[in-house]
Amino acid sequence: MNNVDAVRATLHDALVNDDRTLIMGEDVGARGNVFLITKGFLEEFGPKRIIDTPLAEASIVGVAVGMAMEGLRPIAEIQFADFIYPAFNQIVGEAAKTRYRSNGDYTCPLVIRTPYGGGVRGALSHSVSIEALFYHVPGLKILAPSTPADIKGLLTAAIEDPDPVLFLEHKKTYRSVKGEVPEGRYVIPIGKADIKKPGRDVTVVSYGYNVHQALDAANRLEGENISIEVIDLRSIRPMDKGTILASVRKTRKLLIIHEDNKFGGIGAEISAMVAEEAFFELDAPIRRLCGPDVPAMGYALPLEEEFMISTDRMLRAMRDLAAF
Amino acid sequence: MMAKTVTSRAGSLDRRGLTDEQLVAMLRNMLLQRQIDNRGFQLNRQGKIPFALGSEGHEAIQAGAAMAFVRGKDVLAPYYRDLGLVLGCGFTPLEMLNSMFARAADRSGGRQFPNHYTNKDLGLLSISSIIAAHVPHAVGVAYAFTYRGESGRAVLTTTGEGATSEGEWHESVNFAAVHKLPVVFLVENNSFAISTPQSAQMAIQNVADKAAGYGIPGVICDGMDPIASYAAVHEAMERARTGGGPTLVEAKCYRYLSHSTDDDDRTYRDRAAIEEARKLDPVPVFERVLLEAGVIDEERVKALKADVLRDTNEATDTAESFGYPSPSDLYTNVYEGPFEPWQ
Fold first, then answer.
1. What is the mean pLDDT of chain A?
2. In this structure, what CATH number is given to the domain that contains residue B139?
């Protein structure tokens, strides 16, 4: 099964298993979502549970917040992560603070799913990574799994979670990444990173599409007798400090890779954390391989390719660090 | 579609089905609201609380709207200038004073600004200070009622007129209209958003006229008259409860005080206009209406006033005697369960 199938199957299970769940977003009904993730859901579950909303992102999230406060389990979809900005207030100002500001009187068990990321010729407004804009916000959880099994386990966890979760799906992995998915109920605890490939020489921390490139690079370097440990963060907030630190203490070298730009990105926080907690155990300066510090990737192929991190650049960074 | 106007006839008591007891309860609510409002400003000027916010001039619409709210069934998503409305829906003076003093006993544990109420037991939604951000929540609750087939329940949500400029207000009314949800959008139009007059907010005279753009009924009521206010909100709530969909109710009222204790309205409002508007002060006017109609006598009015003063004093003393939350309370209820902050 590929990543789209995994999202679809997990949503389907949730709708079958829990009457409180419903899906709302733009074109999720008759069209079955622009990636066909909810295709057939309208016929199966009806328009009360599969809601084609007005074209208005703030209320997609805002109305879902109200539903969640009243005991439903809404799964709101933002058609592309690039379109989430109008809903920023409802996510940051409202959903993330509902439990806190009411001191637990009200809760907000809400999932906001959205496809993000580039490499699909999506140009400026169908390619962005948004995680850094939200990971600053306590009260939110942010997940960005990269494989079908992780999607099933973590999307299930997100839907069952009593707090708001932003669930990010990298578009380039939707159909290109395939894998086995456990049968039946499968839940991965939120906040646990996964060591996708154990290694000795360098720790690579990444998430999303980049994980697959990093694994490809790491496998190729086996031939050069360079052993890379690849950690798939999966959960951006909360972050699995323990797994990262244990790995860095073993390899003594850290490379962070993410498509989102470097300044203030997820890698900045990981770097700061490792510098604070394990500085004297490092044998080399921390390195970050990230998207460039420009507003977005362009539509023209060279502008997209220049933005995206190539596997070759990952190979070079891994070799450099291993040799340091 | 022109907005419909609801007034109760001046000169004689048009009680719109309200009993004597309900009429007196509305007067009591208005007196209590005025008393607690004053208390907030007094405590602020005494340096005992950092901030207060008054609803003076909104007593009638709020007493009327509260009378149209069915406790235990309906849900209220209020805005911050709704002291009388939440009191009328069951919030107590002590809860209000706990909030003003930011005590641990406050429902939000001393986290929220005064007038940012929450009380799930009463069906009172938690709100932020972000204008109109609670309106989509009201719509979501109304959707949940419909989703679960709970007819006979409605959501009342309130804002000032300035909030109707917000995109989230528009999106919410539109969503509710499309799905014909059981929700009433009550706009307490006091013609100022802090300092910004309605004329700088919109190019129309009546907020209720916006209803036509959503295909829902728009109603204007005299927000200085609690009976007319009750009638308009009650009719809208009944429509919502019986599957008739949302209504936009605009209550024309007035804000006698500055926006808050941190505002000075002398910088933008003419004193003469406020003095003129004071002649219409809904609290003494309604007291007179009930006296003239023989619903209440001077003796009872005196007793009511003594009663609300005592309630307010007791709530003040009790709340003042309570303690603050402890610093460690900063770290609770971030998520469900134990939470280890990132450091």
1. 98
2. 3.40.50.970
Res B2 pLDDT > 60: no
Q: Cα separations (Å) of A190 from A159, A239, A247, B147?
A: 11, 9, 19, 29
| CA–CA gap between residue B275 and residue B283 (Å, rounded) | 15
What pLDDT is stored for residue A162 in this prediction? Answer: 98
For B156-176, write each residue's pLDDT tens digit. Answer: 999 999 999 999 999 999 999
Write the CA distances from A213 to A220, A223, A263, A310, B276, integer angstroms: 11, 16, 22, 8, 73
Average pLDDT rounded to a whole number, residues A42-69? 98
B340 is a domain residue: no
> Is the CB of residue A131 less than 8 Å from the CB of residue A320?
no
Active site residues of A: 126
Residue B198 lies in a domain: yes
What is the number of domains present in chain B? 1
Question: Do the chains contact at A72 and B334, CB–CB below 8 Å?
Answer: no
pLDDT at B3 over 70: no
Phi (first) and psi of residue A169, to 5 degrees: -120, 115
Q: What is the pLDDT of residue B11?
A: 56
Phi first, then psi, for residue A115 (nearest 5°) are -80, 135
Write down the ipTM of this complex: 0.97
Q: How many residues does chain B have?
A: 343
Domains of chain A with bracketed CATH = 3-176 (3.40.50.970), 194-323 (3.40.50.920)
pLDDT, mean of residues B249-262: 95
Domain residues for the domain of B77 are 4-331
CB contact under 8 A, A69 and B118: no
CB atoms within 10 A of CB A1: 16
Please confirm, yes or no, whether B111 is among the known catalytic residues: no
B118·A100 Cβ contact <8 A? no
Kindly provide the b/e burial profile for residues B28-51, where b requires at least 16 CB atoms within 10 angstroms of the residue's own CB.
Answer: bbbbbbbbbbebbbebbeeeebee
Helix (H, G, I), strand (E, B) or coil at B207: helix
Predicted local distance difference test score (pLDDT) of residue B13 = 85
Chain A interface includes B133 (CB < 8 A): yes
Going by their DSSP bridges, the two strands A287-291 and A228-232 should be labelled as unpaired
Q: How many CB atoms lie within 10 A of CB A227?
A: 16
pLDDT at site B5: 72
